[in-house]
Amino acid sequence: MALEFDTSFDPAYGRAVMVAPDVLRITAGNPSPFTFQGTNSYVVGRETLAVIDPGPEDDAHLETLLTAIAGRPVSHIFVSHTHRDHSPLAARLKEHTGAPTLAEGPHRPARPLRIGEVNPLDASADLTFAPDIMLADNALTEGEGWAIRTVLTPGHTANHAVFALEGNGILFSADHVMAWSTSIVAPPDGAMADYMGSLDRLLARDDRLLLPGHGGPVTAPQRFMRGLKTHRKMRERAIVERIRAGDRTIREMVAAIYRDTDPRLHGAAGLSVLAHLEDLVARGLIATEGDPAIDGIFSPAG
Predict the structure, then answer these.
(1) 300 Cβ partners below 8 Å, 6+ apart?
(2) Which of the two ends of the chain, N or C, has the fewest CB atoms closer than 10 A to its terminal CB?
(3) What is the DSSP string of 155-172?
């Protein structure tokens, strides 16, 4: 199944855009190769509000959020995960509104760091955030005129969660499913086996609209997520084929598999290949000496 990305997105910096009844999207002015046009924050409700993913530490974005809130009470601030483009503004928004913060938990890697290993994504992690309320899987949080169900979706990060707006088929999919690109899954911050398991969880749902953390909506979730799953499986097969053809290092694999990708993303691509290799080694399909590592040597199993 071909996976078609949608990059036609107007971030409308500095103003709120209604994307569904009683749902406003505000996009932060932090575009980059990793954030697309910027991080999406969402304001949910009519009289008493919830905010989902306040975004990066940015004065202009906070001002736009407060303008959209327009003096209405905010009862909850949800955070999908603790990358620095999603959670840091939660503290200042809480100061302005008095609302508690809710998330799965503080930042943590998907697995312990190995001896001598450095986490290349440390700089992107918000290590200061700790939620006032820790959300369990399937937790239902009710506000005035809305209810939000937490669905834990580890993979992009260990503490990643998405939020379902009960009763209308809308899912705030954060960085797990986005229309403009695949999600980065980079060890030790994330784990491919976790990501694929979380994708299957969302495929088992019947959401009709996904509102992601970057870019525009996913309007045909089931078809798109099946395409995402196929894409990941094809990437896995490409890695196995490169190793069978004689590639032994991640650098060699990235040069071949991602030859048409922006070179600025090759570092992230290498971490994505490592995520696949961790899974492939765990399943006994690929061999390496010791634990899979970014500078490791890989070969066919057996």
Answers:
(1) 240, 243, 244, 286, 287
(2) C
(3) TSSTT-EEEEETTTTEEE
Q: Where are the beta strands (DSSP E) in 138-258?
A: 140-143, 146-152, 161-165, 170-174, 209-212
Residue with tokens 């855009």: 17
Cα–Cα distance between 178 and 192 in angstroms, integer?
Answer: 16
Residue 298's H or E segment, with its range, is: strand 298-300
Give the pLDDT confidence of 61-111 residue by residue, as tens digits.
Answer: 999 999 999 999 999 999 999 999 999 999 999 999 999 999 999 999 999
Q: How many CB atoms lie within 10 A of CB 138?
A: 10
Q: Note if the pTM is more than 0.85.
A: yes
Q: Are 181 and 32 in contact (CB under 8 A)?
A: no
Residue with tokens 């961790």: 278
For residue 2, what pLDDT is reported? 66
203 vs 265, residue with greater confidence: 203
CB burial of residue 222 (10 Å; 0-12, 13-18, 19+): middle
Burial bucket for residue 136 (CB in 10 Å: 0-12, 13-18, 19+): exposed
Strands 161-165 and 17-20: unpaired
Helix H or strand E encompassing 19: strand 17-20
Interatomic CA distance for residues 71 and 74, integer angstroms: 9
193-207 burial, b for 16+ CB within 10 Å, e for fewer? bbbbebbeebeeeeb
The DSSP code sequence of 112-160 is PPPTT---TTGGGB-TT---SEEPPTT-EEEETTEEEEEEE-TTSSTT-
